[in-house]
Amino acid sequence: MASWIDDLPQAAQEYLEGKRLDEVECIVSDLPGIARGKAVPASKFARQDMFHLPDSIYYQTIAGGWGEAAGEEGFIERDMVLRPDMSTATAAPWTGDWTLQVIHDAFDRDNVAIPFSPRNVLKRVVQLYHDKGWKPVVAPELEFYLVARNIDPAQEIKPMIGRSGRPAAARQAYSMTAVDEFGPVIDDIYDFAEAQGFEIDGITQEGGAGQLEINLQHGDPIKLADEVFYFKRLIREAALRHDCFATFMAKPIADEPGSAMHIHHSVLDMETGQNIFSGPQGGETDAFFYFIAGLQTHLPSAIPMIAPYVNSYRRYVKDHAAPINLSWGRDNRTTGIRIPLSGPIARRVENRLAGMDCNPYLGIAASLACGYLGLTEEQRPDKQYRGEAYDGESEIPNVLGEALDKFDQAEALHKVLGPEFGRVYSIVKRAEYEEFLQVISPWEREHLLLNV
Fold this sequence. Notes:
single chain; 6-stranded mixed β-sheet; alpha+beta; 18% strand; globular; 8-stranded mixed β-sheet
């Protein structure tokens, strides 16, 4: 066992120093972003170079149902071959024993990457950039709520009780006092992140009651997606230690802002290392505008990947800190596409449409895919929006069903993401939508029961 432990990432080695590793969690992300896999004794993991799970985990909805996406052979639950990416080995510091997590990649029996595995989808998009001599760089921002324990789905979600004994207050963006209210939870988030080798760029209070934002350092899209995947579990575990829940729902509390996963993008020339969004004199290049145009043109079709649930569309509400259109502007947080203040080296494009409820692999893949199409199609964007973009027309579908119709027709997007992924994703999301339509909401009972 010692030989493979000696090759682990530095943070994992430091976590295990002087300890006896008990267990390894072998995991993959399903379409919603839930960690699926097996926990095995460390001694067994040392002897195996793969394990198996049925491909049906990628046909499962968030509610536990199944989309009829298995193809011509039918629902036979064929085994996939799952191989560890040891560069992702990291601690699970909340467990009662000494445990590592390792993300695996999914292949079929012929060693072909499973096309609807979210991590494989992102790898496919990144490889398309590499084939052009480009290196994409991203930086995600993670918004989430700390809320009171909610074990009855019929009850509304409420803010958590803070250190003062009072419920978390709304409209306290950037307040350090508000952050202090969650101090014990945040301390555990920092401790867990350090044990896992993750670098947090900062934690701030957002505008919602109990809403926080974590910024991550920019870097490789696959590595950052892995970190967001890990962070969701890390944050949930930290919250549970303090009798509250962490939720990544796009809109958990009515009349409060939604939670986004803003994605910052830049693209480097692989030969020179230069940001292709900036020219020799520091000016904005054609590639910079092509990327913006790609987001404007193709994001409407990719919305089901960055707003994947019926709740996601409750976030796109005018004047509630979320964009309602695909306008772009410089240092303008009301536009869907924002150009942050930066120098030429750090020039980047921010996609503010993605919700925190999206699968991080698929959200980043969708955003990069749209930018890639812009770079290759070489179209120009609309004129920069000046002023408050909430005054503009809405360009975002109102419901998941409408968004899926646009997704199904997006041939160029499917070609980048993989046609088989597009087929399976649409079927599973439509199955989820049908599950939702069978639920009668409190609003319907209140207003329709005796009035219609």
